[in-house]
């Protein structure tokens, strides 16, 4: 087989592989893009979610990060939805030192129940629960262990806020 036949054959296979991408190129629209019809986009609808206050420190971390993720740091528009969060945190020892029976690796488990409500009617639009885990090193130094646990809780709160935002965006995209 000559070199020109191989080149033309490769070009034809490349064009054939590229054909579906070209044909479907106009069908794709980013989820957070503004629609062309003037209706509020998903980004604006996410920003219009008002989050109820929470009582505990970890819940406040989730709330603060979620609030920033929903609005992007901008001023929030008038609320169209209300979000109720209930967050709990627990810790388990995953690895224990056999010589002195002290935990070396602990795991923080963060659980958040959240409910999206219509503020006008109080109707439940979405009810869900998320879990996230973060491990941290612990040892004989008590205050270092307390700080490591707090850092693990903060990291888990970041992940939890991202998960909740993604779930809310998915729900709002499917329920205009």
Automatic annotation (TrEMBL):
<dbReference type="GO" id="GO:0043165">
    <property type="term" value="P:Gram-negative-bacterium-type cell outer membrane assembly"/>
</dbReference>
<protein>
    <recommendedName>
        <fullName>LPS-assembly lipoprotein</fullName>
    </recommendedName>
</protein>
<dbReference type="InterPro" id="IPR007485">
    <property type="entry name" value="LPS_assembly_LptE"/>
</dbReference>
<dbReference type="Pfam" id="PF04390">
    <property type="entry name" value="LptE"/>
</dbReference>
<dbReference type="GO" id="GO:0019867">
    <property type="term" value="C:outer membrane"/>
</dbReference>
């Amino acid at each position: 087989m000559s070199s020109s036949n191989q080149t033309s054959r490769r070009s034809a296979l490349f064009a054939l592989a590229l054909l579906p991408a070209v044909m479907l190129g106009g069908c794709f629209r980013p989820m957070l893009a503004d629609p062309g019809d003037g209706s509020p986009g998903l980004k604006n609808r996410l920003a219009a979610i008002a989050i109820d206050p929470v009582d505990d420190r970890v819940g406040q971390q989730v709330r603060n990060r979620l609030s920033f993720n929903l609005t992007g740091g901008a001023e929030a528009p008038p609320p169209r939805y209300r979000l109720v969060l209930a967050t709990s945190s627990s810790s388990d020892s995953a690895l224990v030192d056999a010589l002195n029976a002290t935990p070396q690796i602990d795991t923080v488990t963060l659980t958040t129940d959240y409910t999206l409500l219509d503020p006008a009617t109080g109707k439940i639009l979405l009810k869900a629960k998320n879990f996230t885990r973060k491990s941290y090193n612990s040892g004989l130094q008590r205050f270092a262990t307390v700080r490591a646990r707090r850092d693990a809780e903060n990291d888990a709160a970041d992940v939890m806020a991202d998960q909740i935002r993604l779930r809310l965006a998915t729900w709002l995209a499917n329920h205009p």
